[in-house]
Amino acid sequence: MSGADAPSPFLAQTVRAQDGCRLFVRDYRPVAPPPGDRPPGDRPVVLCLGGVARTSADFHDLAQRLAAQGWRVVAPDYRGRGRSARSAPRRYRPEVYLEDLRHIRVALGLGPAVVIGSSLGGLLGCALGVAAPGALKGLVMNDIGPDVSLGGLGRVVDYIKAAPSYADWDDAAAAMRDLMPDLNPGPGETAGEDDWRRVAEATFRREADGRLHPMWDPAIAESMGTDAAIPDLWPLFRSARRAPALAIRGGKSDILSAETLQRMQAAHPLLSALTLPHKGHTPTLDEPESLAAIEALLARVAGASDTR
Q1: Dihedral of CA 153/22/60/217: which sign?
Q2: Which residues are CB-neighbours of 229 under 8 A, at least 6 positions away?
Q3: Is the pLDDT of residue 225 over 80?
Q4: What is this structure's pTM?
């Protein structure tokens, strides 16, 4: 079978939000039965939620790996990102994203979920536990916590607002490396050219002018001004304390500090923590340590589900 004829590893789903915004969703169905005698439908779905300017493509390799282990994995593009439609700038707000997730869960018939959330996605995972009590069965918070560094947030806002374009993939990959030298998107201590190219391909797309443009609406930055006070996020985090959880931190992160991670462990009795010394914001979750920790968390959740 040629590459052009090969089936897609996921179902491309489209969901209409309450205001009519078209939301794109990757739906990876299990390609192998889970261990044991229980059917796949008895397991929670794995819901992958990306960072504020990221897309579902970030989770492609992880999703295929988990689908091969019997998990259904769903990864949406937020409005204004990736293949989802753009929206009025005033609609780029966390409460709207949470409502969009509710529509996605209803439209696709999703029940309880384990959320794997990078940056913003981790906070939305906590919020899901508040908005839908009982729905959150597990949580991975990838380089995010209840205290967010304003310096790191300012860097993210400036990056989104600039929305640079590039002539070719080599230029785009080099720019990503220069803008985020601490990211280190490789699975080891040092990222190679292929790693940076992979990040670029998940960040940009070629548009009508022939140039590579980012897969986000620059208007997203309008609702992220760093001069506004960040609300107290600790109650939101503590609301998820009944679900098994994992916090992953990049050792070079300018978003999640080591001190905040220690406070998170003290506040959440079911939280395990992993720090990746050579990573910045955010780890790409293809690191061997991250994969082992995520699979250990999912095993805990599956075990709890199997003993109900």
Answers
A1: negative
A2: none
A3: no
A4: 0.93
What confidence score (pLDDT) does residue 16 get?
Answer: 96
pLDDT at 208 over 50: yes
How big is the chain, counted in residues? 308
pLDDT at 36 over 80: no
Fill in the amino acid letter for 52.
Answer: V
Region class of 231: left (phi > 0), else alpha (psi between -120 and 50), else beta: beta
32: left (phi over 0), alpha (psi -120 to 50) or beta: beta
Q: Answer whether 197's CB lies under 8 Å from 169's CB.
A: yes
Is a pLDDT exceeding 80 seen at residue 38? Answer: no
8 A C-beta contact, residue 158 and residue 125: no
pLDDT the model gives residue 3? 42
Helix (H) or strand (E) holding 170: helix 169-179
Q: Is the bond preceding 282 in cis, omega lying within 30 degrees of 0?
A: yes
Beta bridge partners of 280: none
**Partners of 141 in the β-ladder:** 117, 247
Residues 118 and 124: their CA atoms lie apart, in Å, by 10
Residue in 76, 58, 68 with CA at minimum distance from that of residue 113: 76
- Three-state DSSP at 93 gives coil
CA distance 128 to 200: 30
Spatial distance between the Cα atoms of 218 and 180, rounded to a whole number of angstroms: 18
